[in-house]
Amino acid sequence: MSAARLSEPAVEPASVADLRDWLRADAGVEDAILANLVAAARQALEGHTRRAFISQEWRFTYLSCGADGLMRLPLGPLRSVAAIRCYDADGVATTLPSQAVAMDQDDQRPAVRVLDAAARARSVRFEVDVVVGYGDDPASVPAPLRQAILMLATNWHARRGDHPEIDLTIPRAVTALVASFRRVRLS
Question: What are 8-39's pLDDT values in tens digits?
C-alpha cells in the first residue's frame, strides 16, 4: 500500500496567535517560524497518533483487497470516501459508484469495502481517495490534541539551532497527552 496526501488542511488546529500567547511572545515576532513550528508539530502528532486532525484528502493505493473487499486505512478518522478506482490488468480504471462502496468508520480501524464482487475479481490495483480528519475547523479537533501541538511547538522553539541539545523527539508530557488518541493495532 502507498499513501499520498492530495490536499493539505485548510487551517492549522492551533494558530500562530495561539502559539504566540502560549509562548508569551510579542505580536509579529518570528511569525513565520511559529507557523512552521505549528505545522511541523501537527504533522509529527498526526504521524504519532495515525490520525488527521483537520480535514484533508488522501489517496491510498492497494494491490489487492480481502476476499470480502475490505481495505483498512492507515489514517483516521474517516469522514467520507471521495472515490475508489479499480484498475484491471491492462491499466484501465473504473470508478466505482457510491453504492458499490461501504465505509467502516471504526475509530481504531477505519476501512472501506468494495461491495462489487466482479470489480474485486478483475482488479489488480485499487486507488482509494478519502477525506480524513475531525473536521474543517480548529474547534472540531479535541482540545488535548490542540494543546499537544502548542506544547510540542514550544519545546522545539526552545531547542532550536542555538540550543546545545537539539532533540526532536516528542516529550513524555506530550506523548501522555495524546496517548488516548493514538490508534493501536492489535492484529
Answer: 999 999 999 999 999 888 877 789 999 999 99
Does one domain contain both 117 and 163? no
Same domain flag for 60 and 92:
yes
Q: What is the pTM of this model?
A: 0.88
- The 10 Å CB-count burial string (b at 16+, else e) for 150-187 is bbbbbbbbeeeeeeeeeeeebbeebeebbeebebeeee
Q: How confident is the model over 77-91, as pLDDT tens digits?
A: 999 999 999 999 999
Do both 62 and 46 map to the same domain? no
Pairwise CA distance, residues 78 & 136, whole Å: 13
Kindly state whether residues 71 and 27 are assigned to the same domain.
no
One DSSP character per residue, 52-93 reads -SB-EEEEEEES---TT-EEE-SSB-EEEEEEEEEE-TT--E
The answer to the question of residue 1 being in a domain is no
pLDDT in tens, 108-136: 889 999 999 999 999 999 999 999 999 99
Structurally, the chain folds into a number of domains equal to 2
Name the phi and psi angles at 109, rounded to 5.
-140, 70
Which residues are CB-contacts of 41 (< 8 A; sequence separation ≥ 6)?
14, 148, 149, 150, 152, 153, 156
Domain residues for 17? 12-50+140-181
